[in-house]
Specification:
By secondary structure, the chain is of the alpha/beta class. 28% of the residues lie in helices and 20% in strands.
């Protein structure tokens, strides 16, 4: 099925350091496209069928019939932390396996510990968790992939009003330290789960029909350019080829949303007109500092 909009995190990554591969189908599509810069970072979670400025964590809680249990909700992501220089660097679950059983075991420990604080963790999947609470988080903590492979100190809860959430962040690390899940993981040479990154966002784009193409997301966030090159080449051979063939037959344009600030772009792909054979392929590097 072809969609009217494709959200493609990692399509035009920041800080690419490599040689951009030839992408014959994407380049031909771009020859028949209009490209508009976006002035903000757009995460795929911020695109949905819900109205603009809806709270994403509340929407997730509503979807699983939890919304009324707490007045405040946060998204939460299990993380691994490693020391680099004098700071801690975040790695999210794109870089390590975690099972739903492991997630639930950690969450059970958190919920027993934080019962007195009236906050509760819920596992929607192995890597997507929610926190319900009676205490709001005032600090804006970004999506974990925006800090992937980067230090976290400046982005932790700040100020006296978020002293509670700084304590929660620190105590989840202590609870993870000698947890049976991590003892078993380390015995299997797997990265231990060393804490929880809690965050939230609001919807920015309302879409009636869309599809996430997130094969590039992790490689772009962590700067794994060899993997990124493999994935975008595969996308070109399959997805972009299909879109190119579809646009030869359809009258409906297709939109790609590249979500990587400062390279965020809205790319509208127009139907392919045979008489425009003279249009030359446009390389992806036209819209970024890619080489």
């Amino acid at each position: 099925m072809n969609y009217l909009t494709y959200i493609v995190p990692g399509l035009i990554p920041e800080g690419f350091s490599g040689t951009l591969p030839r992408l014959p189908y994407l380049e031909r599509l771009l020859a028949h496209a209009s490209v508009r810069p976006l002035s903000y970072r757009l995460m795929k979670e911020q695109c949905s069928a819900h109205p603009v400025d809806s709270d994403i964590a509340q929407l997730a809680a509503t979807k699983v019939n939890l919304r009324e249990r707490y007045p405040h909700w946060l998204q939460a992501t299990p993380i691994h932390l490693h020391v680099e220089g004098d700071g801690l660097v975040l790695m999210d679950a794109h870089t390590f396996p975690i099972t739903l059983g492991e997630a639930q075991s950690l969450i059970d420990t958190f919920n027993q510990h934080f019962l007195i604080d009236k906050i509760e963790f819920f596992a929607l999947s192995a890597t997507q968790w929610l926190i319900g609470s009676y205490t709001p988080l005032n600090t804006t903590m970004p999506h974990p992939l925006t800090r992937a492979g980067r230090t976290i100190a400046p982005y932790l809860p700040q100020g006296e009003e978020d002293k509670f959430w700084r304590r929660v962040f620190n105590e989840t690390q202590m609870l993870c330290y000698e947890h049976s899940v991590n003892i078993e993981r380390e015995g299997q040479q797997q990265k231990p789960i060393q804490g929880v990154w809690f965050w939230n966002n609001r919807t920015k784009v309302t879409l009636s029909q869309y599809h996430n193409l997130d094969q590039l997301e992790s490689a772009a966030a962590y700067g794994d350019w060899e993997k990124w090159t493999e994935e975008i080449t595969a996308l070109d051979r399959h997805v972009f080829k299909d879109l190119y063939e579809s646009l030869k037959r359809t009258k409906e344009p297709i939109t790609l949303l590249a979500t990587d600030h400062p390279n965020s772009r809205e790319i509208v792909l127009y139907p392919i007109k045979p008489w425009k054979f003279w249009l030359r392929p446009v390389p992806l590097s036209r819209f970024t500092k890619l080489k």
